[in-house]
């Protein structure tokens, strides 16, 4: 019997809806079997979303390369979606909501805002999505897990180091990261207390240079023109400290103690000037945090117990250990705390249980 036009239209419409749903959820293309957090068998691989703060510097680019390589070599994962908000809160909220709508299995996120992302990320958790908050943390205890280094310790160590190097007396300039970001805030919080709370230390100027070398160079060039005496540089990032050194070189100003980070271009400049008395300290946000976050996400998806907080030990380069970390044969934009062996990742996760 021939179907009516209305029935044909309804059947076709239903088919379109089903196809769209399958496209959103993903189709089994590799025949891999894995488990969901509820313990049910899932015939296709997982869809993982990574939402960084932005993709505007070499550190973020290297972390992206790390997670792309890890996903490529893991048969449990069907797809990695990079949801880059370019530092915009509303964009990141929309990207996460889109991931929820498309039935992503897990979201790994560096939150642009510690408060504005809370509702949508809690919504994701309630929808059954595994949510791993990496590095830039939000104010919620409902996430599946948080993976981070202690930036307040980063802050205290570097502030005290610079004050000690200056003998508690001198004029200092400050290069901060991305305004409004929790990592930026936490790194500066204790250092600010130490520097501004030391009677003989004067903070001449401070700016947000977004952890970018070019912006740091612009700021330091203007400061060198404005201030005949600068005795120290407190900086949140290796690229920014590289920019500071290059501007000191251009201005033919004597090198002063500077806080850095494990950016290879900076480590090369540190090694170049070390014999002339240049000194630094470089605690680091390791690029392997994204790999730890991915492993925590996979364990949660497989129904395994994971710690609510994974505090990653803070790696550090000093004057004494510089030669162990500087990589003369690698590009300037290489970050030396790059990858971590599976057994070391397992130890960090296990130690936090």
Report on this structure.
This protein has helices spanning about 5-25, 60-70, 90-100, 120-125, 150-165, 180-195, 215-225, 240-250, 265-275, 290-300, 320-325, 340-350, and strands spanning about 35, 40, 45-50, 75-80, 105-110, 130-135, 145-150, 170-175, 200-210, 230-235, 260, 280-285, 310, 315. With about 350 residues, the chain is α/β, with parallel strands linked by helices. It has 2 domains: about 30-150 and about 285-310, Rossmann fold, CATH 3.40.50.2300; about 150-285, Response regulator (Rossmann fold). The strands form 4 sheets. Strands 4-3-5-6-7-13 form a 6-stranded parallel sheet, sandwiched between helices. A 3-stranded parallel sheet has the order 9-8-10, with helices on both faces. A 3-stranded mixed sheet has the order 11-12-14, covered by helices on one side. Strand 11, helix 9 and strand 12 form a beta-alpha-beta unit. Helix 2 runs parallel beside helix 10 (about 290-300), helix 5 (about 150-165) runs parallel beside helix 6 (about 180-195) and helix 10 (about 290-300) crosses helix 12. It starts with a helix and ends with a helix. The model is unreliable at about 1-40 (pLDDT under 50). Belongs to the bacterial solute-binding protein 2 family.
How would the blueprint of this fold be written?
Blueprint: H1 5-25, E1 34-35, E2 41-42, E3 46-51, H2 58-72, E4 77-82, H3 89-101, E5 106-109, H4 118-126, E6 130-134, E7 145-148, H5 151-165, E8 170-176, H6 182-196, E9 201-208, H7 213-226, E10 232-235, H8 238-250, E11 258-259, H9 264-274, E12 280-283, H10 289-301, E13 309-311, E14 316-317, H11 322-325, H12 342-351
Parallel strand pairs: 3-4, 3-5, 5-6, 6-7, 7-13, 8-9, 8-10, 11-12
Antiparallel strand pairs: 1-2, 12-14
């Amino acid at each position: 019997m021939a179907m009516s036009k209305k029935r044909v239209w309804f059947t076709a419409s239903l088919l379109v809806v089903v196809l769209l749903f399958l496209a959103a959820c993903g189709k089994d293309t590799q025949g891999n079997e894995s488990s969901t957090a509820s313990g049910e068998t899932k015939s296709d691989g997982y869809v993982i979303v990574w939402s960084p703060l932005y993709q505007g510097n070499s550190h973020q680019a290297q972390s992206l390369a790390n997670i792309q390589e890890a996903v490529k070599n893991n048969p449990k994962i069907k797809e990695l979606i990079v949801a880059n908000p370019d530092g915009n809160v509303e964009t990141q909220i929309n990207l996460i909501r889109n991931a929820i709508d498309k039935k992503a299995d897990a979201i790994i996120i560096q939150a642009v805002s510690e408060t504005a992302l809370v509702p949508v990320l809690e919504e994701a958790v309630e929808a059954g999505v595994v949510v791993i908050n990496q590095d830039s943390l939000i104010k919620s205890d409902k996430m599946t897990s948080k993976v981070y280094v202690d930036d307040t310790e980063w802050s205290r160590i570097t502030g005290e180091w610079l004050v000690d190097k200056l003998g508690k007396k001198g004029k200092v300039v400050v290069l901060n990261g991305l305004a409004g970001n929790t990592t930026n805030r936490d790194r500066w919080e204790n250092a600010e207390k130490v520097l501004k709370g030391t009677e003989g230390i004067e903070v001449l100027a401070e700016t947000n240079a977004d952890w970018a070398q070019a912006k740091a160079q612009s700021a330091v060039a203007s400061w060198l023109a404005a201030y005949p005496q600068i005795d120290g540089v407190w900086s949140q990032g290796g690229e920014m400290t590289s920019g500071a050194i290059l501007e000191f070189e251009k201005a033919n100003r004597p090198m002063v103690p500077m806080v850095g980070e494990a950016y290879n271009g900076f480590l090369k400049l540190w090694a170049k000037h070390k014999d002339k008395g240049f000194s630094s300290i470089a605690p680091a946000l390791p690029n392997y945090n994204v790999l730890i976050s991915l492993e925590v996400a996979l364990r949660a998806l497989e129904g395994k117990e994971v710690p609510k907080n994974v505090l990653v030990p803070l790696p550090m380069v000093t004057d004494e250990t510089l030669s162990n970390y500087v990589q003369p044969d690698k590009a300037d934009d290489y970050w030396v705390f790059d990858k971590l062996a599976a057994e070391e990742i397992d130890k960090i996760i296990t130690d936090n249980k």
